[in-house]
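Per-residue structure
===
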Amino acid sequence: MSNSEPDLLLRAPLVQLAPDRCVEDGAVLLRGGRVLEAGDWGRVAAVAGAGVRRVEVEGGLLGAGLVNAHAHLELGGLAGLLERGTGSFGGWIRSLMRTRAELGEAALERGLNAGLRRAQLTGTTRIADIDSLGLGATDERGGRQRFVELLDAGDAQRAGLEGERARELAGSDSELGFSPHAPYTVSTGLMKRLARVAQGHPGVRLAVHWSETQDELSWWETGRGGLAELLGRGPDPGQRSHPGSLDWMVACGLPLRRTALIHGNWPAPGEPERLARSGATLVHCPGCHAWFGREPFPLRRYLDAGVPVALGTDSLASNEDLDLLREADLLRRGAPDASPAEVWAMLTTTGARWLGLAGGGVLEPGARADLTALRVGTGDPAAALDQVTSGAAEVAGVWLEGEPVAIT
């Protein structure tokens, strides 16, 4: 929404201002891509005054846009081409790399854009997207926030090149993030270089695949297993000097307060508490978790320790959809003690705060005007949020920086 356009006043039966705050007969006033005011209809309408565009929002509940805290949109073209993850993780990675190369860049770019569109249609307004190929998106309004994937697989020459690449990129885009892929693909030398770059650029966010599989733990602890066979090596000397990869990342100087650790399926005793103290964000991808048939995710260990947990979809190479509301439903099925408010936070505020979005996923003055309207079959705030987070609501409208997105 440009500053020359009139303000936009959205009115809805329910406005979810924050995970623990919902107002009945509410409204949100937008100006220049930001929230000017939000709250009950009478007060916000008085602030709006005359000359605003007024929209009665369909659906029943209006809230902050959904934030997908982890995706690989470039793998969208692989949908349905890989077997479900029943074998070794290293074998699955081999299959993925081979199939991706066979598809070619044009097919991968089509898959990326189709995935971005699917995310919009299902209420997502911001996606932390891992970019390993440098593919472009035809619709940059889609809220794609790129995380450039960096790795060296133990190659010292490549480590130097990747470190220099990160240094050059860091000042080129205020929203660009980095993804040091995983402890088993990033050497100590490269991780230290990336940590120094991040320390020198306080706006840079980072995403690291961490503690995803037992193969990863075996690789770290013994230097053997499926990942060792895939990589042809075990941990480097700098890694072997630490009992776990979390200790190693801390020793390398990675700013965990700006880092999302992806998956975290196998935390060691005490690690959730350490993550909470560090300020790191943990991203869980329920659909991917189910696709691989993994053991129950230790959600309550993280939440009880105070770790902020966000939701992601991962990729269509290891998931059936990019629909965050489906992810919320799967999460609640696997963790029925998770409250609707906790899950709404995982869909909105946790990811938004990690990404540094204005307003942090809360509808308040100054917040980025990314919103999602949802059709619910009730006027009761608690019942509505329960429907939304258990897969019983449909997307009725989406706004990106105050501009409506066509969802039909």
Remarks:
- The first strand starts at residue 8 and ends at 18.
- Residues 105-121 form the longest helix (17 residues).
- Residues 15 and 124 are 17 Å apart (CA to CA).
- The two ends are 21 Å apart (CA to CA).
